Automatic annotation (TrEMBL):
Matches recorded under Pfam families: HAD (PF12710)
Stored SUPFAM superfamilies: HAD-like (SSF56784)
Gene3D superfamilies according to UniProt: HAD superfamily/HAD-like, SG protein - dephosphorylation function
Name of the protein this chain belongs to: Phosphoserine phosphatase
Length: 216
């Protein structure tokens, strides 16, 4: 069986990309100034799915200008190390981690597919030491900094799974957002990790009659 997990808000209690970017920006007065100047435009763009990739790329470029690929990976690895040491605002969601471990114990294949940069997700997931495949947004160097290349969100998550050899159907899908509706529709057992009647009604309205809401 194949279990597919979103990352931010599902396995993690927080926005991994946003926290990593902020930690980089706040260490540099110049980056902080540029981020403040760009925020009135980039912030609203990030909030809208259609323009999210462009808005995120602006902030990503500001935070990574001057980094070579080796430097970028080092920054992400340091962030992952701080996370494991409990020195980050980012934390695991207990319910998500427990469910992930249940699937691994049963011998299910597990894939984490996220809109966060794949390199960042790998720095957070890899140290768990489990056979977990990670798919996420690819990055490319542009003008001395890094921006999003292929943004792994919405239908693109399903495409990423297909390209990785997982086909168009999976047994389980876990996410906190209906932006992942294509991912949920591809699952035999879709789960939105927001408990209560409101979450159940959202699943019903989306046509996911086999879906369930789990309070993580």
């Amino acid at each position: 069986m194949l279990a597919v997990f979103d990352l931010d808000g599902t396995l993690l209690d927080g926005d991994s990309t946003g926290i990593w970017l902020w930690e980089r920006v706040r260490r540099s007065p110049l980056r902080a100034l540029l981020a403040l100047a760009a925020a009135p435009i980039a912030g609203p763009m990030v909030a809208i799915p259609r323009t999210r990739r462009a808005g995120a790329s602006v902030l990503l470029w500001i935070a990574t200008f001057g980094l070579r690929e080796k430097d970028l990976r080092s920054s992400l690895n340091r962030f992952g190390e701080a996370f494991r040491a409990g020195e980050s605002k980012l934390t695991w969601r207990a319910g998500g981690l427990a469910t992930l471990n249940e699937h691994l114990t049963r011998g299910d294949r597990v894939v984490v597919v996220t809109a966060a940069p794949a390199l960042l997700a790998e720095a957070l997931i890899g140290p768990l030491g489990h056979p977990i495949e990670v798919l996420g947004t690819s990055l490319k160097r542009r003008g001395g900094g890094w921006v999003a290349d292929v943004h792994c969100r919405h239908q693109r998550k399903c495409q990423a799974l297909a390209e990785a050899g997982h086909g168009a159907r999976w047994t389980y899908a876990y996410t906190d957002s209906l932006d992942d509706l294509p991912l949920l529709r591809g699952a035999d057992r879709p789960v939105i990790v927001k408990g209560g009647k409101a979450a159940e009604r959202r699943l019903f309205r989306a046509g996911l009659l086999n879906g369930r809401a789990a309070a993580w």
